[in-house]
Specification:
This protein has 43 residues and is mainly alpha-helical. 67% of the residues lie in helices and 0% in strands. It is built from four helices and no strands.
Length: 43
């Protein structure tokens, strides 16, 4: 499994509540996967 896939699994953004998903919508649309992880792994 790639490092990117492992990081996505750990982040598990699909389990976020609706408010958190809505708040991150711009990031989903505008960032690369790596940038998205860098920003949201720390929350």
């Amino acid at each position: 499994m790639s490092e990117l896939a492992e990081r996505m699994i750990v982040l598990a953004w699909w389990d976020w509540d609706h408010a958190r998903l809505r708040a991150a919508l711009g990031d989903f649309r505008g960032l690369t996967a790596e940038e998205f992880l860098d920003r949201h792994e720390q929350e």
